[in-house]
Amino acid sequence: MGFSFDALSLFGLAAVSASLLCYVMEARSPWWTLGFCAANLAAATYGFAQGAWPFGLVELFWAGAAFLRWRKQAGA
User: How do residues 8-33 score in pLDDT, each as one tens digit?
Assistant: First the structure.
């Protein structure tokens, strides 16, 4: 049983890993919140490209929520 990654799978792994890292670091700086937003947009792109549109929609929601949080933090 072989295990291989194509380019799309590696992109998805990178996007979700970046999302997790930014989420964990979010309390340290508003820039991590913006990074969380960007990583979730990348994960949404991966979801739609893979054909998993429910995943893509949820990631878009998280990206929007993170963007609103970042705007609130940046304005404070």
Answer: 999 999 999 999 999 999 999 999 99
What is the rounded distance in angstroms from the CA atom of residue 24 to the CA atom of residue 9?
A: 23
Which residues have a Cβ under 8 Å from the Cβ of 18 and sit 6 or more positions away? Answer: 35, 38, 39, 42
Output the pTM of the full model: 0.90
DSSP state of 27: G
> Within 13 Å of residue 7, how many CA atoms lie on the same side as its CB?
1
Q: Which of 21, 24, 27 lies closest to 43 in space, CA to CA?
A: 21
